[in-house]
Amino acid sequence: QVQLVESGGGLVQAGGSLRLSCAASGRTASTSPMGWFRQAPGKEREFVAAISWSGGVTDYADSVKGRFTISRDNAKITVYLQMNSLKPEDTAVYYCAARRGSGFYTTQNKYDYWGQGTQVTVSS
Question: Cα(85)–Cα(68) distance, rounded to whole angstroms?
């Protein structure tokens, strides 16, 4: 079992930056591939970024490439999402997710554990 707690969300003006954190706990947390997803009001939850258990492989949604960076610190069992040049369309609840097994995926049905989400609001 893996428990995930997100933090770092808030209100920011367009062009600004935020860093989200996801603290993981549980026996296999440090070796779990992890990802960030988001859900805007009235829309389905979508993939944002993913990172392998070692941190050596990452992937991003086209809409955030070049602006967002995912990273992890396995000593702290924490995954980060650095978000720069934020746009109003980035407004959403951001969720951290972890996989039970190995493998690197960008689809949410491959993830087994989810955090409660953190709200990010970007004003124009």
Answer: 8
* Nearest by Cα to 22 from 10, 48, 38, 4: 4
Q: How many CA atoms does the CB half-sphere of 61 hold within 13 Å?
A: 16
For 118, list phi and psi in degrees, rounded to 5: -135, 135
Read off the DSSP letter of residue 124. Answer: -
pLDDT digit string, tens, across residues 70-105? 999 989 999 999 999 999 999 999 999 999 888 879
For residue range 12-34, what is the model confidence (pLDDT) as tens digits? Answer: 999 999 999 999 998 877 788 99
Burial of 87 (0-12, 13-18, 19+ CB in 10 A): middle
